[in-house]
Amino acid sequence: MKQGKRSVTITDIARELSISPSTVSRALNNHPAIKEETKRKVITLANKLNYQPNLLALNLLNKKTNNIGVVVPEITSHFFAAIISGIQDILNASGYNIIMCQSNESYREEIKIIENLSSVRVDGFLIAPSSKTRKLDHFVKLKNSGVPIVIFDRDCQGLDVDKVLLDDYDGAFQAVDYLVKSGCKKVAHLGGSLSLSTSIHRRQGYIDALKSNNLSVRDDHIFHTKGFKHSDGIRAAKSLLKLKDPPDAIFAVNDRIAIAAMYVAKMYGFKIPEDISIIGFDDEPHSSYFTPSLSTVRQPAYSIGLLSARILLQNLSNPHDSPGFRREIFRPELIIRDSSRLRPDT
Amino acid sequence: MKQGKRSVTITDIARELSISPSTVSRALNNHPAIKEETKRKVITLANKLNYQPNLLALNLLNKKTNNIGVVVPEITSHFFAAIISGIQDILNASGYNIIMCQSNESYREEIKIIENLSSVRVDGFLIAPSSKTRKLDHFVKLKNSGVPIVIFDRDCQGLDVDKVLLDDYDGAFQAVDYLVKSGCKKVAHLGGSLSLSTSIHRRQGYIDALKSNNLSVRDDHIFHTKGFKHSDGIRAAKSLLKLKDPPDAIFAVNDRIAIAAMYVAKMYGFKIPEDISIIGFDDEPHSSYFTPSLSTVRQPAYSIGLLSARILLQNLSNPHDSPGFRREIFRPELIIRDSSRLRPDT
């Protein structure tokens, strides 16, 4: 607070008009027992003095804040931003406000955020856990306090709450199966950190698609990057494409890594897709403007946001104590562009 | 709240231990008048019952929430995400929590956000105004309530608060001056919405750079897109490059529009940079991985975030009532890659 400036209270308004604070309060709340003339006077003065109702105090009474906490690992990614758009479209239409926090993939940050949002008392939580989150005590504590939670995108095994997830396994399987059916014999994988459930599931989809096509899984054709920056992808792609027996296709864990792989492949003289096919995951907005345009797996991020928010709203209006929780799983869509060969049958 | 589950209060703990609520309160606050034995009992039971101190009530007393409201038009853009990273690094280190909200470039949303964050009483505000914000009443009201505000990225003329801005004019001037000095005679501009101060300043920098090089400003070589999607850029670039007398260079208002222009130029058979040079603005992470890699103007987004947060912290710890406000302006940096010709003198 700046010096000499403090918030105007109901008492200030009451003193100025020589009426009781309770009359001011009822006037502001449009109570029928208060005369119109009084209401007019109170409201005019309240506006003049820049009076702001102390919602903190009101919240103490009705225990509802109309705020929903949304916790994501990072807001930079197009994927989470699109989910947040979906969440926002539903919650704003229902009169809820969104309070966003990013954990920066840090377990400690995530705990701090949950504690802080709990203390300002949000009505519900929509959470995509950080990649470092192993212990779930902070989520369990939150759940036990009775606040509705919906987990989205990344699974938390062992935590029984409503979840909206994406079938990463299926997306990876579709991509790798396509690569093999289009004639590629040596499909490599540039994967992400194995501390993320999404990376684990995409890797498994890759492995199973190879097996179901009777191709062997080669350890020297699988690299996992620690981070998701282009530079992580550049490093991994260089190691992969320098091999004496390089792959003829790459399935990358996301578009950023795929774009880095395209960059390295071109630098090393590979023709895309003649010498090497590349498929990413995410369908970022710029992916179709590269040369060649990037084939990818599109995630229905906006729809994941919509559904997560809808489930939370249902829990808020109609709390359930049943042991069953919803587990909704979206199926991603393979988008074939110019960075991968065409299937002979298409 | 789920049925049968309500928050544990100090009264519950008091009843269970047969002591007074005020003793419980003082025990939890480590008051010297309370015996260690009692403190131990209270804390043990509070943990067992999952007691959460009602910070709403505490905040009413000490009037400090440790929350800072950060309001941006959109979190999707790399630019705002990088600013937020800078803000977060400073505020988290100082024990503040960040509550983020996005206005989606909507004036109405922005007003709602300001009202909501005011009512949960954040200690300060960091705001990049929406492109639709004309009236400043909501900011003036906020300022008059005594809460410190720092405006960043987009100027609000007529609002006297601390501001951290970027010299968009200078960035545009540098880019266009470079294009002319590298031999381009017909430099076009793909600009953004003229409701944004950044777009206006970049346009003016473009115009003045042409004039200072004794080149005429051609109305048919200036297009302004409404939005910032690739599709907006594609449409504008098509109109521009279909002209009978097309430009030999394009300065685009941002990288997204520049990438769309590169896409259209290639589609129409222009060689980049031989036939046409293209320079963007923002230096998005993927911009250097395009073929050719995109020349651009780099904004020190992270530093803008750092400085904005530092100024806010100074205001929080040492409120000033002086009429003077800080106005910090960052100078952007021209990054020349392969989408623009080299200057003969470099």
From TrEMBL, chains A, B:
Listed GO MF terms: DNA binding
Gene3D superfamilies per UniProt: 3.40.50.2300, lambda repressor-like DNA-binding domains (1.10.260.40)
Domain HTH lacI-type: 8-62
Keywords: DNA-binding, Transcription, Transcription regulation
Keyword field contains Kinase: no
Protein name (record): LacI family DNA-binding transcriptional regulator
Organism: Splendidivirga corallicola
